[in-house]
Amino acid sequence: MLAEWLDQSLAGEPGAAVEGDLPGGRYRIPAPGLLELLPSTPVADAPALVLSAGIHGNETAPIELLGELLAHLEAGQLTLATPVLVILGNLAAIRAGERFVATNLNRLFRRGLDATGDEPDRARTLMGAVDAFFAEHGDRPRLHYDLHTAIRDSQYPRFAVEPYAETATRPEQWQWLAGADIQAVLHQHTHSWTFSHYSRHYHGAQAFTLELGRALPLGENDLTPLAPMERLLAALLEGRPPATRPAAAMAFFRVEHELKRASRDFRLCFADDTPNFTEFAPNTLLAEDAEAGPCRVGETPLRVVFPNARVEIGARAALLVTAVPEPC
Ligand SMILES: O=C(O)CCC(=O)N[C@@H](CCC(=O)O)C(=O)O
Ligand SMILES: [Zn+2]
C-alpha cells in the first residue's frame, strides 16, 4: 500500500484506502501526497519526524529514497517506532518534471498567505499538515528533513542548509548529519520563506534543507552515495540512535550576502556550470544588473552557492558564502 501511495501520488490517481494497517503500525493519507505513519509501539522521546521531498518537482533522488524506505517498512524489514509525516511537495511539478509550475513553492511558507494559485494552495496545505502533525505529537521532539537535490555540481555534493534561527541547533544533529555523509553545512544569515525555516521558526523543530546530489529525472538517480543518509532515516523511523561522526568531519559556511535579481536585464558573470561553493577572489565581478548595478567580491574571497540567473525578478540569484570554523 505504501509503495502504491507513492505511485498513485505521482500518477495523480486517487488512492483507494485513506487509512489502514502496515507492519508495526497504521498509515493515514490525509490529502494527496501526504502520508502519516503511526507506530503501534512507539519509542518514548523519539522525534516526531517530517520527511519532505519533491518541494521542487525535478529533484527526484529524495523521492526514490523515500520510496525505498516505504518499501522496507511495508515488507517488515523496518519496524516503525515513531510518528512520521511523509510529504511529496509539489505534485503537479513532479509530474511535469519541472522545478515548479507557476512559482517556487519553497518561497511560500508564510509568505503571500492570501495569494491564489496551485503553489500557494499547496504551501497552505503543507503548513496545515505540519501544524496538525506536530500538535498531535506535541510530547515529542520535532525533526524535519526537507530533502532536495541541486541544479549543478558542487564541491560538496551533499550539504545541509540550516535555516536562520535565534537558538542553536542541537549538537547531535551535526553528528547525525556527518554520520549520514553530509559533507558541508550552510548557515542561513536571515529569516527566509522555505519549508525547513517554517518548521524551525514556527514549530521549534530541528529542521534542515538537505541537498543530496544533483537533480536528475526519476529513474536516473544513483542512490549509492545516499546509503548513509538512508541509514540515518531508517534509524529514525525505528527509533534507534543513528550512526554519528564528529561535526568537524563537515565543512561549515555562513551566508554573507544574498544576491537578488533586480531587473530583467540581469546576468551572472561566470560560467553556467560553475559548481556550488566555487571561490571567487576579491574584486571579481559576479553579476551585472540594469537596476542594482554590478556585484563584486569585496576584500574577502566569497564562494557562490545556488547561482541561477533565470530566477523570477526579486528572487535569489545566488548565495555568497564564507567558511566558518565550526557550528555557529
Ligand atoms: O541548485 C539550486 O540552485 C537550488 C537548489 C534548491 O532548491 N535549494 C533550496 C535551498 C533552500 C534553503 O535555502 O533552505 C531552494 O532554493 O529552495
Ligand atoms: Zn530544491
TrEMBL record:
Q: Which Pfam families match?
A: AstE_AspA_cat, AstE_AspA_hybrid
Give the catalysed reaction(s), semicolon-separated.
Answer: N-succinyl-L-glutamate + H2O = L-glutamate + succinate
Which species is this record about?
Halomonas stenophila
Could you tell me which residue ranges the AstE/AspA barrel-sandwich hybrid domain spans? 249-323
Molecular-function GO term, any one: zinc ion binding
Q: What is its EC number?
A: 3.5.1.96
Q: How is the cofactor bound?
A: Binds 1 zinc ion per subunit.
Which prosthetic group or cofactor does it need? Zn(2+)
Succinylglutamate desuccinylase/Aspartoacylase catalytic domain location is 46-230
Q: What does this protein do?
A: Transforms N(2)-succinylglutamate into succinate and glutamate.
What is the protein's given name?
Succinylglutamate desuccinylase
- Gene encoding it? astE
Task: Return one Gene Ontology term, BP aspect.
Answer: L-arginine catabolic process to L-glutamate
Active site: residue positions: E211
